[in-house]
Each structure stands twice: as C-alpha cells, then as structure tokens.
Amino acid sequence: QAEVGIAVSNATDVAKAAASVVLTKEGLINIVDLVKTGRMIFQRITTWIFNKVVKTFQIVVFVVLAYFIWGKFVVGAFDVLLLLFLIDFVTISISTDNVRWSRRPDKWNVNWLVKVSVLIGVATVLESLFITYLGARLFNIFSNIGELHTYGFDILMFFGMFTIFVVRERGRFWSSRPSNILLLSIIADIAVAFVISVIGIPGLQPISWQAAFLVLILSFIFAVIVNDNIKLMALRILGVQV
C-alpha cells in the first residue's frame, strides 16, 4: 500500500486526479527531485518551529525576568504589537528560503528540537538582560519609561532578525545563503526598526542612535557568533546530523 500515489506524465486524467504527485516529465527520474523538494520543505518547517520557540521563549521570559530584576516592564503593549507585525514579514519569507535537502531521510524528532530551541532561548534571554543592563549604565534608560520600551523593542526586534540566520541552518550560519526575499525582508525590518527607534513614531518614543546602534551590534554578535556555536555544540551532543 503506497503512502504517496505517483502518476507519470502520460497517465490518464483519472490516474492523475487520484495521485498525490504527478510527474511533469517522462520517466521516473523526477521522483528524485520530488524527494529532494520534500526534504527541503521539511527543513523550512523545522526552521519555522525552531524560530517560533526561540522567539516566544525570549519575549515571555525576558520581559518577566526584567520586571522581577528592575521592577519595570521593558516593553509595552504597542511595542509588542509592532514587533509581531514587523517580524511576520520575515516569518512568512522563510517559506522561500534556500535550504539544503538532507542526505538521509528526515523524521520528526521533537526532543532535540525543543532542547536546542530552549537552550538558545535561555542564552538569548541572558544576553538580552545584559544589553538592558548596559543600557541602564550607559544611557540611563530606566529614567524614562518611553525610552526603556523603545530600547526593549530594539532588543527583541534585532535579536529576532539575527536569530533567523542561526536557526535556518543546522551547520554554521554561513553554510548556505538565504533567499533574496528572506534576506531583503530581514534587512528592511532592521532598517525600519532602527529608523523609527531613532526618530520616533506615535507610541514609540525616540532614543539616541548610539543606544540603538549598541543594541544592533551586540544582538548581531550574540546571535550569529555566540548562539550559533551554542547551537552546533548542542546538536553534536544530541547526535543530530548537520
């Protein structure tokens, strides 16, 4: 009993309608491309889940811990809504990403996915708290709740963008190039977030460009250098093929 019904290119219309897959060229060689495409889709789905867990973990735990430590919410409701709105463009673009098809058959292993996601999430939270501490020491952001919320928005936004580069690859983040759409979406989101943080918009109070730039640089360093190495180390310990 076949799990996937395949109809060849010259099959009858009835056979094509009943099949799950229809080959568009003669012969059976296209089945290889079918398998490759399926494995690439699997990698994109894994990336989406990976990114979703890390992002949700960071937003929830970082905001709660920051409140317990400093007694203030580092972001407001408007900041979170704006964050989710901007990030959604990049999240959707993951479906267009260039990915490498795996050499071995894929299978769902939620165990390693959750463990590595939470580990990177914990690292991201600690790094976000450190950047917040630097903001308090260098720019006194806690003296103005509006500036604090913008600063916190930048932390979540920039980390969210750079984390995409880490979770889309099971190896080093530079092992493959993101698709043009995904890359442009990330660059556009970073540019928009930086500009509105500096000039301000209704509901988002401006901060100095030095503060926004500090968050941008540190987020990049922590995400694509520190967290990428944490990911590789965790995958090797868990025996996950990269």
Write out key terms for the chains shown.
mainly alpha, 242 residues
Topology (SSEs and partners):
Layout: E1 6-7, H1 13-18, E2 21-22, H2 30-70, H3 77-93, H4 110-139, H5 145-167, H6 180-199, H7 209-238
Parallel strand pairs: 1-2
Helix pairs in contact: 2-4, 2-5, 3-5, 3-6, 4-5, 4-7, 5-6, 5-7
Q: What's the short story on this structure?
A:
The chain has 242 residues and is an all-alpha fold. The chain has seven helices and two strands; from the N terminus they run E-H-E-H-H-H-H-H-H. The mean pLDDT is 86.
Description:
The protein is mainly α. It is 69% helix and 2% strand. It is built from seven helices and two strands; from the N terminus they run E-H-E-H-H-H-H-H-H. The chain has helices spanning 13-18, 30-70, 77-93, 110-139, 145-167, 180-199, 209-238, and strands at 6-7, 21-22. Strands 1-2 form a two-stranded parallel sheet. Helix 3 runs parallel beside helix 5 and helix 4 (110-139) runs antiparallel to helix 7. The longest helix has 41 residues, at 30-70. The model has no long low-confidence stretch (mean pLDDT 86).
Cα shape: elongated
Computed structural class: mainly alpha
Succession of helices and strands: EHEHHHHHH
Distance between the amino and carboxyl termini: 32 Å
The level of helicity is: 55-70%
Beta-strand percentage range: under 5%
What topology, given as strand order, has the largest sheet? 1-2
Number of helices, where a helix is a run of at least 4 consecutive DSSP H or I residues: 7
DSSP, total strands: 2
Average pLDDT:
86
Rg, nearest Å = 22 Å
The description of the largest β-sheet is: 2 strands, parallel
Low-confidence region ranges: none
